[in-house]
Specification:
Helices cover 21% and strands 21% of the residues. It is an alpha+beta fold. The protein folds into two domains: 121 residues, no CATH class; 54 residues, DNA Binding (I), subunit A (Orthogonal Bundle), CATH 1.10.30. The longest helix has 14 residues. The relative contact order is 0.18.
Protein backbone atom coordinates (compact mmCIF):
# COMPACT_ATOMS: atom_id res chain seq x y z
CA UNK A 1 0.00 0.00 0.00
CA UNK A 2 1.60 3.26 -1.09
CA UNK A 3 2.64 5.58 1.70
CA UNK A 4 2.19 3.11 4.54
CA UNK A 5 4.71 3.60 7.30
CA UNK A 6 6.20 1.04 9.63
CA UNK A 7 3.68 0.10 12.29
CA UNK A 8 2.94 -2.72 14.72
CA UNK A 9 -0.28 -3.09 12.77
CA UNK A 10 1.72 -4.63 9.94
CA UNK A 11 2.33 -7.69 12.12
CA UNK A 12 -1.40 -8.48 12.37
CA UNK A 13 -3.32 -11.10 10.44
CA UNK A 14 -6.68 -10.83 8.72
CA UNK A 15 -9.31 -13.53 8.22
CA UNK A 16 -10.57 -13.75 4.63
CA UNK A 17 -14.14 -14.84 3.82
CA UNK A 18 -15.53 -15.75 0.43
CA UNK A 19 -18.59 -13.88 -0.78
CA UNK A 20 -20.82 -16.38 1.06
CA UNK A 21 -19.15 -15.49 4.38
CA UNK A 22 -17.23 -18.77 4.60
CA UNK A 23 -13.70 -18.41 5.92
CA UNK A 24 -11.09 -19.51 3.38
CA UNK A 25 -7.68 -18.36 4.58
CA UNK A 26 -5.62 -16.04 6.76
CA UNK A 27 -3.48 -13.32 5.19
CA UNK A 28 -1.15 -10.58 6.36
CA UNK A 29 -2.17 -6.93 6.57
CA UNK A 30 -0.38 -5.91 3.37
CA UNK A 31 -2.26 -8.50 1.34
CA UNK A 32 -5.56 -7.51 2.97
CA UNK A 33 -5.12 -3.82 2.15
CA UNK A 34 -4.10 -4.70 -1.40
CA UNK A 35 -7.42 -6.51 -1.87
CA UNK A 36 -9.34 -3.63 -0.30
CA UNK A 37 -7.64 -0.94 -2.40
CA UNK A 38 -8.45 -2.82 -5.59
CA UNK A 39 -12.11 -3.17 -4.57
CA UNK A 40 -11.77 -6.94 -4.62
CA UNK A 41 -12.77 -7.15 -0.97
CA UNK A 42 -14.65 -5.23 1.70
CA UNK A 43 -14.22 -4.98 5.47
CA UNK A 44 -16.57 -7.01 7.66
CA UNK A 45 -16.75 -5.46 11.12
CA UNK A 46 -18.41 -7.36 13.96
CA UNK A 47 -19.85 -4.85 16.40
CA UNK A 48 -22.04 -5.94 19.33
CA UNK A 49 -23.07 -9.10 17.54
CA UNK A 50 -24.02 -7.37 14.27
CA UNK A 51 -22.16 -7.33 10.94
CA UNK A 52 -21.29 -4.10 9.12
CA UNK A 53 -19.71 -3.96 5.68
CA UNK A 54 -17.40 -1.18 4.48
CA UNK A 55 -15.51 -0.52 1.29
CA UNK A 56 -12.00 0.85 1.61
CA UNK A 57 -13.01 4.50 1.46
CA UNK A 58 -15.77 4.21 4.05
CA UNK A 59 -13.47 2.16 6.31
CA UNK A 60 -10.86 4.94 6.17
CA UNK A 61 -13.53 7.50 7.07
CA UNK A 62 -14.74 5.33 9.95
CA UNK A 63 -11.14 4.95 11.11
CA UNK A 64 -10.99 8.69 11.82
CA UNK A 65 -13.88 8.32 14.26
CA UNK A 66 -12.42 5.17 15.79
CA UNK A 67 -9.10 6.92 16.37
CA UNK A 68 -10.89 9.70 18.21
CA UNK A 69 -13.23 7.60 20.35
CA UNK A 70 -11.61 4.18 20.69
CA UNK A 71 -7.93 4.41 19.73
CA UNK A 72 -6.92 1.55 22.03
CA UNK A 73 -9.46 -0.81 20.51
CA UNK A 74 -7.57 -1.26 17.24
CA UNK A 75 -4.18 -1.76 15.66
CA UNK A 76 -3.21 1.04 13.29
CA UNK A 77 -1.40 1.62 10.02
CA UNK A 78 0.10 5.10 9.61
CA UNK A 79 0.06 6.68 6.14
CA UNK A 80 1.38 10.07 5.05
CA UNK A 81 -1.99 11.77 5.48
CA UNK A 82 -4.00 9.64 7.90
CA UNK A 83 -4.14 6.55 10.09
CA UNK A 84 -6.34 3.58 9.26
CA UNK A 85 -7.52 0.82 11.60
CA UNK A 86 -6.44 -2.70 10.76
CA UNK A 87 -9.52 -4.76 9.84
CA UNK A 88 -9.88 -8.16 11.49
CA UNK A 89 -12.02 -9.68 8.75
CA UNK A 90 -12.42 -8.99 5.03
CA UNK A 91 -14.83 -10.52 2.51
CA UNK A 92 -13.99 -11.27 -1.09
CA UNK A 93 -16.69 -9.72 -3.28
CA UNK A 94 -16.50 -12.03 -6.28
CA UNK A 95 -14.96 -15.29 -5.06
CA UNK A 96 -16.90 -18.51 -4.46
CA UNK A 97 -13.73 -20.31 -3.44
CA UNK A 98 -14.29 -22.99 -0.83
CA UNK A 99 -11.88 -23.57 2.05
CA UNK A 100 -9.34 -26.32 1.72
CA UNK A 101 -10.04 -29.44 3.78
CA UNK A 102 -6.51 -30.77 4.14
CA UNK A 103 -4.11 -29.20 6.63
CA UNK A 104 -0.76 -28.56 5.00
CA UNK A 105 2.25 -30.34 6.42
CA UNK A 106 4.79 -27.59 7.13
CA UNK A 107 7.03 -26.43 9.96
CA UNK A 108 4.65 -23.71 11.12
CA UNK A 109 1.71 -26.10 11.44
CA UNK A 110 3.82 -28.75 13.17
CA UNK A 111 5.05 -26.24 15.76
CA UNK A 112 1.45 -25.10 16.29
CA UNK A 113 0.13 -28.67 16.58
CA UNK A 114 2.69 -29.49 19.27
CA UNK A 115 2.27 -26.07 20.90
CA UNK A 116 6.04 -25.42 20.72
CA UNK A 117 6.49 -28.27 23.19
CA UNK A 118 9.26 -30.85 22.96
CA UNK A 119 7.48 -34.17 22.58
CA UNK A 120 10.14 -35.97 24.59
CA UNK A 121 10.90 -33.82 27.65
CA UNK A 122 7.61 -31.90 27.62
CA UNK A 123 9.18 -28.44 27.97
CA UNK A 124 8.14 -25.49 25.81
CA UNK A 125 10.70 -23.61 23.75
CA UNK A 126 10.88 -20.77 21.27
CA UNK A 127 10.83 -21.77 17.62
CA UNK A 128 14.57 -21.12 17.35
CA UNK A 129 15.21 -23.66 20.11
CA UNK A 130 13.10 -26.41 18.52
CA UNK A 131 13.77 -28.82 15.71
CA UNK A 132 11.65 -31.41 13.93
CA UNK A 133 12.44 -35.05 14.62
CA UNK A 134 11.53 -38.11 12.56
CA UNK A 135 10.27 -40.71 15.05
CA UNK A 136 11.40 -43.46 12.72
CA UNK A 137 14.60 -41.94 11.30
CA UNK A 138 14.85 -41.43 7.57
CA UNK A 139 17.93 -43.65 7.65
CA UNK A 140 15.58 -46.45 8.76
CA UNK A 141 12.94 -45.71 6.15
CA UNK A 142 10.94 -43.12 8.10
CA UNK A 143 8.79 -40.74 6.07
CA UNK A 144 7.98 -37.05 6.51
CA UNK A 145 4.37 -37.44 7.63
CA UNK A 146 2.18 -35.99 10.37
CA UNK A 147 2.43 -39.30 12.25
CA UNK A 148 6.23 -39.49 12.00
CA UNK A 149 7.24 -35.89 12.77
CA UNK A 150 7.32 -34.23 16.18
CA UNK A 151 8.85 -31.15 17.76
CA UNK A 152 11.99 -31.85 19.76
CA UNK A 153 14.32 -29.56 21.65
CA UNK A 154 17.92 -29.55 20.52
CA UNK A 155 19.05 -31.55 23.55
CA UNK A 156 16.49 -34.33 23.10
CA UNK A 157 17.05 -34.43 19.36
CA UNK A 158 20.78 -34.88 19.85
CA UNK A 159 20.17 -37.53 22.53
CA UNK A 160 17.84 -39.52 20.27
CA UNK A 161 20.10 -39.26 17.24
CA UNK A 162 19.38 -41.60 14.33
CA UNK A 163 17.42 -44.03 16.48
CA UNK A 164 13.78 -44.72 17.22
CA UNK A 165 12.50 -43.62 20.64
CA UNK A 166 12.51 -47.27 21.75
CA UNK A 167 16.11 -47.72 20.64
CA UNK A 168 17.07 -44.51 22.47
CA UNK A 169 15.07 -45.45 25.59
CA UNK A 170 12.96 -42.32 25.19
CA UNK A 171 9.19 -41.92 25.26
CA UNK A 172 6.85 -39.55 23.44
CA UNK A 173 4.52 -37.53 25.66
CA UNK A 174 1.65 -38.05 23.15
CA UNK A 175 1.21 -39.89 19.84
CA UNK A 176 1.43 -37.51 16.85
CA UNK A 177 -1.64 -37.23 14.62
CA UNK A 178 -2.72 -35.20 11.63
CA UNK A 179 -4.94 -32.36 12.89
CA UNK A 180 -8.47 -32.12 11.47
CA UNK A 181 -8.31 -28.33 11.53
CA UNK A 182 -5.44 -25.99 10.93
CA UNK A 183 -3.64 -25.71 14.30
CA UNK A 184 -2.68 -22.08 13.57
CA UNK A 185 -6.34 -21.13 14.01
CA UNK A 186 -6.15 -22.06 17.68
CA UNK A 187 -2.99 -20.00 18.08
CA UNK A 188 -4.77 -16.93 16.70
CA UNK A 189 -7.96 -17.49 18.70
CA UNK A 190 -5.90 -17.35 21.88
CA UNK A 191 -5.25 -13.67 21.10
CA UNK A 192 -8.05 -11.28 22.13
CA UNK A 193 -7.66 -9.20 18.98
CA UNK A 194 -8.95 -12.11 16.88
CA UNK A 195 -11.97 -13.06 18.98
CA UNK A 196 -14.30 -11.81 16.22
CA UNK A 197 -13.02 -14.69 14.05
CA UNK A 198 -14.55 -17.38 16.22
CA UNK A 199 -18.07 -17.34 14.83
CA UNK A 200 -16.64 -17.89 11.35
CA UNK A 201 -14.43 -20.77 12.52
CA UNK A 202 -17.01 -22.96 14.22
CA UNK A 203 -17.53 -25.24 11.21
CA UNK A 204 -15.61 -28.48 11.65
CA UNK A 205 -15.71 -29.43 7.98
CA UNK A 206 -13.16 -26.86 6.85
CA UNK A 207 -9.64 -25.76 7.66
CA UNK A 208 -7.93 -22.46 6.97
CA UNK A 209 -5.16 -22.24 4.38
CA UNK A 210 -2.30 -19.95 5.34
CA UNK A 211 -0.67 -17.86 2.63
Amino acid sequence: MAGVGISLGLDCNVLVLNRHYMAVRIVGVRRAFSLLCRNIAEVVSVEQGAYYNYNFQSWCELSELKQTFEPDGHDWISTVNFNVAVPRIIRLLFSDRLPGKEVKLNRRNLFARDNNQCQFCGKRFSTRELSLDHIIPRSQGGLSTWENLVCACLTCNAKKGCRTPKQAHMQLIRPPRQPKRNPMVHVHLGNHRYRSWKQFLDHAYWSVELK
